Each structure stands twice: as structure tokens, then as C-alpha cells.
Amino acid sequence: MKPAPLDHVRATGLDHAIETLVAAGEDAKILAGGQSLVPLLAMRLAQPTTLVDLGGLRELDYIRDDGDTLEIGAMTRSRTVETSPVVAGAVPLLPAALRYVGHVTIRNRGTIGGSAAHADPAAEVPSVLRALDAELIASGPRGPRTIAARDFFDSFLLTTLEPDEILTAIRIPRQPSGSVVAVEEFARRHGDFALVAVLGAAHIDSSGRIAEVRISIAGAAPTPVRADAAERLLVGRTPTPELVRAAAAAASDATDPGSDIHAPADYRRTLATVLTRRCLTRLVADTERTEAA
Amino acid sequence: MSTPTRTGRNVSMTVNGEAVDRHVDPRRTLSDFLRKDCGATGVHVGCEHGVCGACTVLLDGRTARSCCTLAVQAEGSEITTVEGLADGGELHPLQEAFWKHHGLQCGFCTPGILLTVTELLAGNPDPTDDEIREGISGNICRCTGYQFIVDAVRDAAEILRGTGTGTGTGTGTDPTR
Amino acid sequence: MTSQQLPPGLIGARTRRKEDPRLLTGRAQFVDDVVLPGMLEAAVLRSPHPHARISSIDISAALTVPGVFAVLTGHEVRDACATPQPVVWRMIPDQRMTDQYALAVDKVRYVGQPVAVVAATDRYVAEDALGHIEVEYEVLDPVVTLDDALAADAPLLYEDWPDNVSCRQTIPKGDAATAFAEADVVVTETLTYGRQMGAPLETRGAVMSWDPFTDHLECWMSTQSPNLTRDLLGEVLGLPVDHIRVRTPHVGGGFGNKFDFYAEEVLAALLSKRTGRPVKIIEDRLESFVANAHSREQRIEVSVAAKADGTITGMRGTVWAVLGGQLATVGIGPCWLSMALMAGPYDIPNVEATVVGVVTNRSPYGSYRGWGQPKANFAHERIIEKLAHELGLPANDVRRRNLIPADKFPYPSQVFYYDSGNYADCLDMAENAVAERGWRKRCDAASNEGRALGVGYSFHIEISALGPSKIMNQAGLQHSSFDEEVVRIDSAGGVTVRTGLSAMGQGIETALAQVAAHTLGVPLDSVTVLHGDTQTNPFTGYGTGASRGAALGGGALLRASTRLRDKVLRIAGHVLEASPDDLEIADGVISVKGAPGGPSITMRDIGDAAYRRLDGKLPDGEDPTLEERDVLDPDNVAFSYGTTAVLVEVDRETGRVDVLDYLLVHDCGTVINPMIVDGQLHGGATQGIGGALYEEIVYSPEGQPLTTTFMDYLIPTATEIPRFETLHMTTTADHIPGGFKGMGEAGTIGAASAITAAIEDALPDLTLHLARLPVSPPRLLDAIDVATASKENS
To answer: Hey, which chains touch C, using 3+ CB pairs under 8 Å?
Structure first.
């Protein structure tokens, strides 16, 4: 388990990184935190000729809150995002989900951009971005462009980034104040990739109706799943156990899970139902508690 | 050691307080670099894919899997391995606690666990047992069943907080002391 | 029952371990830390096919890779070896042997079988070169599962065999046919135990240095069995054993996986011979999942005949052993033991048990802690639970009715004599402890909240202190199983113990030091234990396994130390002008009993008198020096035993099982260090929990292994494992000096049985008979669905 021969270029700036990527051609790979890529190198499942190392790009390591939108540089470490009060205030779903990403040691090195660009459908970050309608900013030789999360995740481990593009930032709209969030994740061991995870955020108005709700599901399709139909069932309604059950069924219907050694597809579909119900139940219960307080 | 098959690179970093400058193959993992080029054989390689935690080191004060980090990525950083924990001939209180509570058997996972716990206690000086278990859940121990590790961490936390003698639980009298 | 009660002292003390400071500071040496001048590193090319003929191998391109020194293929290895890879356990005389070499010759029979090997300047380059070896295969139909292998038209792994069955043996006791014919009730179960492995955190490895001028081989190996390894290397390589020196640094976990003798050590030796340089070979984690011995996978058909009151009158069972593509070092051994111990702790007069060894295109089946016993336990404990359910009795009542009574020891089982035990007391103690801890109340309280908690028990026995060499030879072991220990007091009174056992985390240095210090009356710190070198240390038969180190090593050392103590007292008596019988030793000082402040002499003085300034001190007729050796080849094995009780929570909607509490009541005779014993129980139980709920090596229907990383092979972490509580009884092994029994495997044996029983207890409204391990969440959810449907239909 040793990486195949490769060249390594430590990018000195974004332009340098893009130039190197273009010059190295299709067999180049971008190295962010390395937590997914270096094991793939060691297994020789990835054998890039050149690694373009973004590790020195301080310009991509930032968290900015402009009031409406939170922008996070792609090279910001997951642990930094997870523990940032700014992030917790603007998009509480993100730190809630990041706690399920591997272990602290992984999050110390892994980056938010790396996790998004790796596009593992069982990973938490892509699901958060789908749930919150984030935008992803990419730069390439043709300049920067913005990609909606819904258009970004293409398939299993595939995104719509061009081979010569680098993900530089993600932008997440601020969640309405008073939002509640809940993550229900089922993994075999703490820190493992989810068999299925359901990420939910809701805003419940003063009359007890669901003003806004966002649900996304990880591990249940080749890309993160946004449970639009379930959200439509819920919005504007006062939650009841029956409604929550109906929404959970609708969420599960939106999934398209595969089978692997850890669980068959049917089991994942069952999990999607159960976890969505539990997630929504928590969101509602949290609200009741908050309002009582 | 490995033949630089591509362009070798110079890397500089500090390993347990000593400045290190080496020419390395860019594909060399930090774990191999520390073990073979710096003599830090307390860095143990258990899986080389970032699951077992045996290779955990402190990189600029935070834990990192040295098998999932290339040596070139650690350019300019400060590394602490298990060899850097004790102070001269004096064991670190964490090491003492692991000794006292039988928090290790074969010892292969131990360096990674000690460094993981160092970070855990720096951020949370008084963890509950559940927090300790979650904190070390990225480190596989195949020998101990974890309980005596948890006991050791709880005891070490108490000593490091300076709030007790760290008598803890789970041990009896020690006639050798 | 504790007739070998030792006086209080270091035996029985919770001392800190002597090995720990170096392990805690990174100073301990493991095999991958060994670096020799000019050393090369090797990598193995492994078969990507489960079953194929090798048409051709072209190594020419690999040889041109800069930094590559040598490449070997199967034919060269066969020509260089005096024998095929050895099989040391040959219990079944007419067993068909597989006789394979360290590299495949002509045919591969499992994914991962070594096909070629490269030595290069380092592992990076060696792996580069693997990509340049061209192998052409003629792919054959694979035989992936037991049923595939037994099918009438199954492809044959070995074309000169009539089928894929390597061996079959039935061992009867009494008359099972009559017992079944006359039974009030007969219950039957078919169980499937998943394929698992020990997976020590340090993978296997060796450094081999072959001196071309003298044909001496220096080996550094992470092995549990250094003397056996030396003998087997000698056989395979055609070298006299005095040309082979095996050094064993710290072993980063063994769990049986490092008992076995593998291809890689032979390959590194041959590469060293070819290149004239030392060669290191370290298995990486991916390789470990195909190259390390697999274990556990069996199908077990078991049935019991009983009276209406729960008395079991007969047992029948068949162990279908899912062997791999070739026999591992221990052959049918572990599966044979599953058969031989199927009646477990129960006094069953009529038993008829069979083992059938079947080859498949999977990795070889070898040693893993527990060695057949977790499966035997699963068989007898599952069938007890099912019988109890059938009769409407509490399972522990059925256990109690059938446990071997204390006055029946030594008890003749199907094969072995069980030495001693108070089984019923052990079960009572566990039930009482569970009652005191209020587990049932917790279940009831949880039930009121709609949660499902349950309590389960199992009773296990563990063969230990292996064993009487001649009897083991008769059973088929092609090696001995005694233990030799040497103890020496030096010229300054320091004590050195030399042992052939390996230090693999079980604390053998500390345990032996405690025995020597206790017996000689010296401080623990004055004892040094040397291990890990066949050239300078004594011979241990078998190896560091079979829960034998503390019992046999401890017993031999106790006898040697006792004789050495006698000599010390004779010298002291001479100097102090007292009768040796009137002297005592405490903390390294010899003085007259009951005369505090009287004349005394230190161990340092005794050392001086025996080595340096003898005149006037060493009695006439005493030889200078202070050394004793002892060999313990016991009359019998020993049997430790215990009760496991677990409290689990089941999530009915997801099938998830959480182990909330775990209690072990255990008896391993005299305990040398309770802290170490508890650590062994915790660690074994953790592996047992892994085997019950998490760990399984999975193959695709095409024969490809799908669990080749720690992301897929789920070793439990601290968040999946509960707190353990242990309680101890002491029933000594009276045929072992000191009364030690040994217990290294205990924790693994009863875990799955107790956990499955607890899961069933948590779902009292359903009739579940869990028969397949591990109980993964999808499997449990399926079982719940089936049981729910059956309830609704009835």
C-alpha cells in the first residue's frame, strides 16, 4: 500500500494551481486535505501523474458571513468549520452534520471543499449543501463560475466540475433565525460512513405551522437526495404524527439506494423512512421545547 | 530511502522539537517519513488507509493520520510523535495513567491513542466516559476492550487538571511501588 | 477445591506490567522497526482469481525496474523447497492433504494466493514492479460457498480428489441412537458462523537474512511460535535447525493469526538467499484480509435428545468446516475442536459428533483466538436455549440440570478429561450478580417506555494449558507441547528468567516475573525476563497460544524457582549457620524465621558467594552458579470456564443491537495477575462482540473478497463496546504446579451465545431463533419481520 510514482506541485496561488492543473492534463489530481485521496493513492486505486497541492493556499481558508450568505473557502478544515461560532449562527445544520464526519482527527485535516468535491453520496457535507440550496464556486482557465448544489452532484463520486476546474468556495444561504436542525444518522460504528443519514432543518412559525423545512438524505442514492415531495407535504401544515409518517414515506420514495455488503437496498429504504420520521419528530419536539421556554 | 521516481522535493519540518530537512520522494507518506527517515518508530502503521489511528501524530498541535498525509504536505509544520510525550526520563502523566490502569496490551495502537487523548484532554479537560469513548473511537485497539483505556484517560484527566491524586478506579494496590 | 492455594505475595497481585514503559514511549521494537544494512523490501503479487490455472508468468519487465533485485515464481520456489508448506495438526489420518508451496505452482485456488514475489530497494519500488509482472490465467469456475463445494457437479479444487471433501471424522460417546429413539423431546438447529479473523493491529512480518557463506538464516519475525517456526523453516528450506535463529521482537497482537506458519517467511528467506541481502516482508492491511488465516466459518447441524424435565440424554452434531483453497498450518484443527467440544460443559452421556472439512476457493482457514470453541459454544448454548423454549423452562434451569456436577471431575468427555470445576456455582454467581445489579428491572422499565432490552447468558469452557505432548502427538500434532523455562540468579543477586514464549501483549514478562519473584522472595524489579530468541532461550513446544503460556510457562518456572530457592537457602544456611528449613526470604533478604533483627544475608551476598568469592560461603558439594531449568509436560490439559451475562438493547425498527452491560464470572485456577486476567477477558469479549454483531469476511458470488479494508471489516471501537465487570472463582488445576489453568481465549468463546440469547429475550413477543452470525442490523430486521409475520399468521 504505497502510492505509485507522482509529481507534487505545491500551488503558490489559485492561478498557479489552475495553470498547473491545465498543464498536467487529465491525469492530475487536486490534493486538499488528503483524507480521502491519500488512501486511494496508497491502494493505487488513484494513480495521478501530478498532485496539485492546495495546502498552501491561505486565500481559500476563510469563513465569511455577509448577512444573507455564509461563504466558506474550500480549503477550510472541517474541524474549523465545525467549531466556528459564525457557522453555528448562520447555518447550524452544517456543524450538526460535521460532527458525524469520521473522527476529530479526520476533520482536523479534511477540508470542506475536499468533502464536497469528493462527492461521496454517503457523506454528510454534500447532503448539507443539497438541503440548504448551497452554491459552489469553481475556478478554471475560463474564469470562475457558480454551480447550484442541485447541479453539482452528478453521480457516485462524480461532480459537474470540469477536469481543469478547482472548487474554491461554497456559499450557503443563512438559515432563518429560530431554525431547528436535526441529524439522524445510522452508521455501523461511530464515525463510519452512514448507511443512511437524514439531515433536517425546519422553521416553525408562531402558530405552530411548519413555515419552512428542508430534508436531505445521504447514503440512499448515487447522489445526496433532497426530499422535495416530503417537504411539500409538510410546509404550511401543523405537524402531527400522521403527517410526519406520511412525509417519511414520501422521503423514502425519493431514494434510490444500492446494495452493498453492509446493507441491501430494501434495508436502506426502510432506514430512510425510520430516520426521516425520527428526524422530523425531533425537529418538531425541539420547537415545542423552544417555544415553551 | 525510496528512489525518487519523479522530482524529489525538499521538506523541512520540526519533529519532536528537532529541525529536520530531507529530500523526499513526493509520494512518501508522512508515516514512512517519520519512521524511516526520522527514526520515530513509535509511529505505528496499522492500516495505511486512515481507519485504525495507530499512526496518529500531532501536526501543529492537532491530531493527524500520518498515513493519510504525504510528507510533502507537512512542509513547515511541527510534528509531535509519541517519542515527544515524555519529559526526559519522566513519563507524561497520561503514560503513567495508562501504565497504572493497564490501558495497553500489545502496545501497537498505544502511541496513536496517547496522542489522540492528548488533543482530547486539551479541548475537554474533564470528559465523561462517553466523551472519552467517542474521543478515542477513531483508534482501533484489538487487545484491551477499551475499558482500561477509558479508566486511564479519566484518571489522567484528573491529574492534569490538578484536582486530585488520580486514584481513579479500576486498580488495586501496587506492591511494586 | 483450592488445594494448591499459594501463600499471598506477588502471585495474585495487580502489579503494573514490566513491558509497559517501552511500549508507552515508542521505544519497543516491532518487526518493522528492524533495519539491517543493505536490507531489501519485498512485495507479493497475488492472484486476482479465486480459481484459475496459471498459463504463464513473465517477469522480465519487472526485473528491469530500477531498484529491483529479484523476482521469484512458483516453480523456482518449489524447486528451492524441501517440502510443501507444513500442516502440523493431522487429527484425521486419512485426510487428503493439499501440499501447496509458498507460491502457487500451476494453479491458484483463492484470491490473494501468492503468485510471485519481488525484492527491491524499498516497498514503494517493489510495489511498482508488481505492476510489471504479466500473468496469464485460464480462469476456472469458482467454488465459493459450502453448498457450491458439495454440489454433485462441483468443480474440483484438487483434480485428483473425488470431491471437495478433505476429511471426515465421527467421534462417538455412548449410544446416541438409543438416546434419540427414547427421547421425550428432540430439538434441532442449523447454525451458520460467519468468516472472521484475528486481525492483530500489527500485520504479520519478517526480516530474513541468509548468509550465503555458511547457510545460516537469521530471522526476525512477528510470531507466536518461534521454536515451531524454526523447526518448520528447517523442514521447508532443508536447513538444520542449528542454522536458523528466530528472533521475535514485540508482537503487535497475535490472536492465533501469528501462530500459523505462512508463505511470506519462506519467500523472504528465499529472496535473501537469492540476493545475498537481508529481506524484509511486511504484509499490508489490504493483503492481510486475504493472506492472513481466516477462521470461524462453519455450518453446524446440532440436535439434542432430552427428557421432559430438561435432562439431555443425547447430542448429535455435524461441523461443516468451510476450509479455504488449501490447508493452513493447523489443518482441520480448529474445526475438529469444535466437534470434539460440542457437548461443552454438559454431562451428556451419549454424543455423536462429526466434522467434515470442505475446500472452497477462499483464503485458508487457520488459527484465531478461541480455535473452534466459539463455534462449539454457539452450538451447545443455542440448542440449550431452543430446548428450554420448547419445554417452557428458563434456559438457566436447563443449563443447571445438565452442567457437569463438581463431584464428577475429572470428567471424561467425548475426547478430553476435564480436570476440575464448580460449574453450577459459577452460573449461580452470575445470576445473583445480575439480580443484584437490577438488569431485569432495567428491562421492565425500558419496556414501559417502548424500548426493548433483554438479558442473555451463556456458559463456556475453555481448553487451556496445552498440553501433554505424547497425547497431543497421538491426537495428530506433529510437534510437542511442553514448556521449558530457565531461571538464574546472577553474581549480584539479580534474577533473569529465560523463556521461549513470545510477548504479544498478554503480559508474559510480568506474569513470569511475578512467579519467579514470588517464589524466590525477591522484588519484582529485580527480575528480568528474556524472550524472543531461539538461539539463547529455552524451547517452548507448540507456541504462545492455546492459553498455555501462563499455565505451562508459569508452572515450569515455579518448579525451577523453587529448586533455585532451595539452593539459595542452603548457601544462606551455611553462611548464617542455620538450618535452611529455619530460613525465610523476604524482599531479597534471607533471615531466620521469627527472628526480626537477627542475622541475615542478602540475595546479593548469595550471588557473590555462588559466582565470585566462594571460599567460606559456598558449602562443599554445591556447584558454583545459581541456575535451574524445568520442563513442564503436564499429564493433562486444563479447562477454565465461565458464565457470560449481557444486557442488550434492540432497536426494533432498525435491527440495531447495543450491548449495554457485560458481566463475566470466570475461573482459571490460580490467578497470577488479576489485572492482566481482566484485560484478557475484556479483550476477548470485545472480539466476541465483534464476531457476534459486526465482523464478517464476505465473498461475492464470484469468489471475490469484498471486505479488504477496516472500513468494511468492522472491528468494534470504544463506542460500540460496553463496560465490563468480572467476578472470579478459583478452582485450581491440581496437575499443574501452582494450579494455574490459563485463560487467554476465554472472552471470545461465550460472547455470541450470550448476545443472541439477550436479543431474543429483548423481543419476548416474537419467537426468534437466531442462527447466523454476525447478527447485523439487516439480518436482525429480517428475522424480526419473519417472526412478526409468523405471529400474525398464527
So the answer is: A, B
